Structure to design on (298 residues):
């Protein structure tokens, strides 16, 4: 036959008040009002049909029955906490991250070993896509995106400012003296970043320039691979492009510096910074990014 237990909320209020010897301190600990604590304790006393506290003007003290009950409740709560901690520690924790291909390939993957050493209990599932995921609907915990402005509905942390920079092989760079010489070259475009070449050319005084041909890819890493193979001139994102495995094969043909209009942000749902695995990843990536900026190539 099932045994009848008093309400858990009443036991929590009693437990907090008993240890603090104060309804006010118990209320502060549990995030409720002192009157709520008093109401819960009074209800427990009525349920037991005996007083648990002697009430004074400024503090309360336990009766003999109250002391006996507090000892039993404290033991029970400790056992519950130990059991739930063990279950939480045993469960596999996977953090799903959506990150842009260039950021993932050039910056994130080379640093993952550091994260794994610090947090061996957290597994990462990384999706590399140019598609903007809907954090409100999809099973993604964190997104890393190149954005022009923060999104008010989401929690955001700026990671890195970037600017466009043409890159190509040294052989092609030898044929380029000024940006106007790009008229005789193949310009490598990224379909997900439409208009970036036009904006860069306008900024350097070559608006309307028509290249010899155009070659398009759906991701920046693919465009950089083509550039490294001598297929033309691509637009990379400085300083991130110099972290790419292809950086050894690429050079910067011009010294023109064009300001960027976007930055990399870490994005997550509001309130999720309290989740241990989300908080751990944010702390780690901010620390790694700070180290990267100290040695950033300009």
């Amino acid at each position: 036959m099932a045994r009848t237990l008093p309400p858990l909320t009443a036991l929590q209020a009693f437990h907090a008040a008993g240890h603090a010897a104060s309804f006010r301190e118990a209320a502060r600990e549990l995030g409720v009002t002192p009157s709520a604590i008093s109401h819960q304790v009074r209800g427990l006393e009525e349920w037991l049909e005996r007083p648990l506290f002697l009430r004074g003007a400024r503090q309360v003290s336990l009766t003999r029955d109250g002391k006996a009950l507090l000892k039993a409740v404290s033991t029970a709560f400790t056992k519950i906490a130990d059991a739930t901690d063990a279950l939480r520690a045993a469960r596999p924790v996977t953090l799903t991250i959506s990150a842009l291909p260039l950021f993932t390939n050039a910056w994130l993957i080379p640093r993952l070993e550091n994260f794994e050493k610090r947090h061996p209990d957290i597994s990462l599932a990384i999706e590399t896509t140019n598609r903007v995921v809907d954090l409100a609907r999809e099973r993604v915990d964190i997104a890393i995106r190149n954005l022009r402005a923060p999104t008010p509905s989401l929690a955001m942390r700026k990671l890195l400012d970037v600017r466009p920079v043409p890159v190509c092989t040294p052989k092609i760079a030898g044929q380029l003296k000024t940006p106007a010489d790009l008229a005789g070259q193949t310009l490598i475009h990224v379909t997900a970043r439409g208009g970036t070449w036009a904006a860069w050319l306008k900024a350097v005084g070559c608006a309307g320039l028509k290249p010899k041909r155009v070659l398009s890819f759906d991701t920046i890493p693919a465009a950089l691979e083509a550039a490294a193979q001598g297929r033309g001139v691509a637009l990379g994102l400085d300083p991130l492009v110099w972290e790419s495995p292809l950086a050894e094969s690429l050079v910067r043909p011009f010294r023109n510096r064009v300001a960027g209009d976007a930055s990399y942000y870490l994005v997550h749902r509001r309130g999720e910074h309290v989740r241990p695995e989300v908080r751990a990843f944010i702390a780690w990536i901010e620390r790694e990014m700070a180290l990267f900026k100290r040695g950033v190539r300009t």
Q: What stands out?
A: The CA atoms of residues 91 and 231 lie 49 Å apart. The chain has ten helices and ten strands.
